[in-house]
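Entry:
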Amino acid sequence: MSLRLYNSLTRRIEPFEALDPACPTMYVCGPTVYDYVHIGNARGPVVFGVLAALLRRRHGALRYARNITDVDDKINAAAAGQGVPISAITSRFATAYREDMAALGVTPPDIEPEATAHIGEIIAMIERLIEAGHAYAAAGHVLFAVDSYPDYGKLSRRDTEQMLAGARVDVAPYKRNPGDFVLWKPSTPELPGWDSPWGLGRPGWHIECSAMAAAHLGETIDIHAGGVDLQFPHHENEIAQSECAHGGRTFARFWLHNGMLNLSGAKMSKSVGNIAKVRDLLAEHPPEALRYALLSAHYRQPLDWSDGLVEQSVRTLDRLYATLREIDGLTAGSQAPEAAIPADIEAALADDLNTPQALARLAAIAGEARTLSNQATQGGTPDEDGLQALAAAGAKLRAAGLALGLLQQDPQTWFARGASGDDDARIQALVDERTEAKKSRDFARADALRDQLAAEGIALEDTPQGVRWVRKRS
């Protein structure tokens, strides 16, 4: 099945064909590093990370860039408030961002450009825009002249009035058009700044991504992705300045936008404090459950975030890992076969990253494996053919999970999350004591032990191989 993606530029699903079939290019807007990121900021890296892996499987290679914005007024304010240089803020939170994404199973991009390392490229692009008549200097600023680009607004499809309101721009007296946006702005001595033809200053936000994308991926890229909140003005402005700087050549062929996360019925946003930070969530929940939750809705749709969603994800992963644990117990010592990612999983992802459909197929594959396990153990110990079939079923389930970045832990590691080895041994001893009590028909003692374990949040599971236990999430 060919890969089909919804292109925000054309408002339709289109077959994806890379400019260079041997190595597509993709740019994803990364974080502005002045604080810990919230879970909404993680949705793009997770879902577009699934896309990156899919592209690598299909094309053999991918050149994937996700930037770090490390100069910004919010960073300046944080640094001034703490009396430190901006590098102290950006280094700390860039590192935290990488740690948080790694915990969520996000594979790092091939390139992670930082804005401050590309000041030369930014200045050169601005100079080209001025020379071509698309930008002008005024009062220490350089501004992009939106009237010089007839296609301005083609991505967001907003009229002039909507764009001016949506951009929240200052209608400064030095602007020729109220919608003109800043490419370069002056810096006072207490602010970070770089020498330029227009004096000491710093870049505007939009020009940073255009310059970094061109520097690392070329003037035309295959895919540009990010949150739908970036569609205007950020991505609209990227298109305008990039295409004007490059003689009208297409900047990005496909534009992909993930929907927002809602918390308590409202869009998650740092500006209103309506956020759940990834770092806090990681301290409370298994990281894989957070990843599962982020993939549970189609990437283009809003996602209502709640503790209930995470807990449901934990329970689902409990069932999936229990299936693997069951198979591993039966096939211990057998050689696990190699397994390719199932075709129906690949087909779901090739259909505009339909992760809900892929997760449904993952559950179905697990169901098939459980049925096979039950059939194999009905007559006692499975024969060699039965063991091989079970091992193949487990390999298929793990391969299906691999496409989504799930089910790659050892099941025992998943079920032992948050527990010490000593506590595991204590609980196992209680489970074993209960089993012996039942064998000796001391049902009162067995019931008392069961109640004790339940009070500690331990669920018991009877299997053909004996009693297994799992910690329930509170």
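The first helix runs from residue 39 to 59.
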